[in-house]
Amino acid sequence: QWLLSSPGSMKFRAKITNKGFIELFIQVSGTIAKLAKVCVLRVCQDKLCFGPTGPRATREARLWCKVMRGASFYQFNMEGVSEELNEIYLELISEHLYRAVRSAGNAASLKIQLTNKRRPCLTVAVELASRTGHTHVMVHDLPVRVLPRRWWKEYPEPSIQVSDVSVYLPALKTLKSIVERMANMGDNVLVEANLNGKMNLSIETDVVSIKSYFKNLGNPLKSAHSVPQDRDPESMVQVRVENRKLLQFFEGQQINPTTALCNILSNTLLHLVLVHEDVSLQYFIPAL
């Protein structure tokens, strides 16, 4: 099923030597593997983007992860299809990438390169240092599909509508345990938030009703500027989503974010955002 054509003139080579960023890249790869079985890696001059495959009209939750080039990469060289279209689109199995990089926890360096070994591959090289001072390199060749230019429009960066409310998330471990309990009792959960930093999660069935309240979470400044002046800050904006999809996010994400946001588009979309240094992870869960 993998395209056997050559990457041609396209080139990509990146190297990470910063131990903290190697660990973060492992966490990012693990998160992507949990949230998207197959993903499209979009290589740009200033960033790497991991996005979903499949038609955009799907009702499934969708992932978008961006790793900025920043200062974290020791080396980052790429040449795309052409000067005007200086990008590369690769389809790969997410779990393969995670298996390749997870051994890099104590590595001296992590290299990622687009290669052609009888078929297009993303070659991951993990350089491990031994106690004697010698190094050995573990090399993983991951088959990839090089997506032709005519398919690129099928994999756009998500266009983000202005949300009706945006609130900082409470501790992710706390949320995960609450959503786990709720998932055992019903199929969907109501998520509510307002402009006074409050957020509620609730589930209601014929047998049981549960509601968790959070307050003093805070709202990003920009969210307060984008709402009508006459709107009551206490009024709750809500969206009902599948418990399974929400739980998948909290179980799958492995990043320890410095910023975690919940954006709600009333009765339409739950948009979760995690940011840590040069990495941003977005998860879009459509309303029921």
Automatic annotation (TrEMBL):
GO terms for cellular component: checkpoint clamp complex; nucleolus; site of double-strand break. It holds the Pfam family Hus1. It comes from the Eukaryota. GO terms for biological process: double-strand break repair via homologous recombination; meiotic DNA integrity checkpoint signaling; mitotic DNA replication checkpoint signaling; mitotic intra-S DNA damage checkpoint signaling; nucleotide-excision repair; telomere maintenance. InterPro entries: HUS1, HUS1/Mec3. Belongs to the HUS1 family. PANTHER family: CHECKPOINT PROTEIN HUS1B (PTHR12900:SF3), MITOTIC AND DNA DAMAGE CHECKPOINT PROTEIN HUS1 (PTHR12900). This is Checkpoint protein.
